[in-house]
User: What shape does this take?
Amino acid sequence: MDAAAKRIVFSGQVQGVGFRFTALNIASHYRLTGYLRKLPNGDVEMFAQGPEKMVDECIRDIQDSFVGSIIHIDIEDAAPDPKCTDFKISF
Assistant: This one.
């Protein structure tokens, strides 16, 4: 299976709704590595890497979990980061 790394920025009502913890649980379910972090403007950035199909399904599951809260998602390919060995919330 092809490995992929993506940087995703979620915009909308993604603070104070359990977004990062829910996204962490979903990413862990898919056994991805990477991180989530709050950006200064209130958006949430996610770096996720793993099998491309799993990364895409993870993003779709997060979207489905927060229908009505996410206004925009920006997804771009990223370089894999071998230092990411688990998935975590970065503060």
Summary: The CA atoms of residues 7 and 47 lie 5 Å apart. The radius of gyration is 12 Å. The first helix runs from residue 19 to 29. The chain has two helices and five strands.
